[in-house]
Amino acid sequence: RRARWLSLVWMCAVFAGVALSYHFFFLKTFDHWWVDDDPRNFAVVRSVSNPLSFFTDPPTARNFSSTNTVNPMLALSIWLDTRLADRNFRFAQLHNVLILTATLCLLFLILRRCGLSLTGAFATSLIWLFLPATGIVSEWLAARHHLEGFTWSLAAVLVAQKLVQREWLQNAWSIGLLLLLMGFAALSKETSAITVTFGLSLYLWHRGRLYAAISCVALFLAYVGYRSWLVGFTAGEGHYLAIPSALVFAHFLARLPYIF
After folding, report:
1. In 3-state terms, what secondary structure has residue 42?
2. Which of 126, 183, 186, 205 would disulfide-bridge 193, Cβ 3.0–4.6 Å?
3. pLDDT, average across residues 145-156
């Protein structure tokens, strides 16, 4: 048991070094000031005394997002940055390093449980790290919720694996933890409310963990009701998504990788 804990500590230390080096040398995030939505987000959260209002007060939730989206975990995350270090962007980026470290550790553990070797799991984690999308959500503070949502989702997948492989009993504690992690994922990034809950419910149902699977569906229904109450059921006016043509997308792929 002690050896297992030591291996986990070593894993965290290695990935912390990888994440810090990635930010410092590749992304160079400690040399930048705010970009795009960052100044606005920090200004909004500084005006809020009680962070629970991001979760429970519809006007506050809408004011933070500027569109009808649900991401109160991002507001809470930035609120903590401002309370601990005011508007120190280096502290905020260190927070991003911590999140990235957790993501890499969880991804590595899941890949190992899927049968990959140490080298294979580590190499796959590094490939994910150097994808363009990973760089964007790691560098841009306003996109932190994408990474946080993925991190909570990975933690939920790890719990589901333990349930399926019968390392943990299917009881109120384990199902409650699973729902809590999926809830955090959904409150970080809305797409997780669909992809993670339904993906894990199918996985758990197929492997005979019926109570856990039904609980995932119940969580999704609860989320739909919560979202409708907090910000409504649509993205709202002024929320547009540019869909590139096949030619533009091919041109984008031809220019990869981008150096941030």
Report:
1. helix
2. 186
3. 96
Q: Taking Cα atoms as reference points, which of 220, 216, 225 lies closest to residue 191?
A: 220
Give the span between the Cα atoms of 129 and 10, in whole angstroms.
19
Burial pattern 75-95, b for ≥16 Cβ within 10 A else e, equals: bbbbbebbeeeeeebeebbbb
CA distances from 260 to 23, 25, 30, 86, 257 (A): 10, 10, 12, 26, 9
pLDDT tens for residues 37-60? 788 888 889 889 999 999 999 999
Among candidate residues 218, 215, 236, the one with its CA nearest the CA of residue 226: 218
The per-residue b/e assignment along 172-190, b for 16 or more CB within 10 angstroms, e otherwise, is eebbebbbebbbbbbbbbb
Give tens-digit pLDDT for 178-213. 999 999 999 999 889 889 999 999 999 999 999 999
Question: Which value, to the nearest 10 degrees, does the dihedral of the CA atoms of residues 236, 242, 243, 248 take?
Answer: 180
The gap from C-alpha 119 to its chain's centroid, in whole angstroms, comes to: 25
Give the integer Cα–Cα distance in Å for 77 and 51.
10
- What the block records as the tokens of 144 is 């932190």
Q: Whole-angstrom Cα distance, residue 70 to residue 33?
A: 26
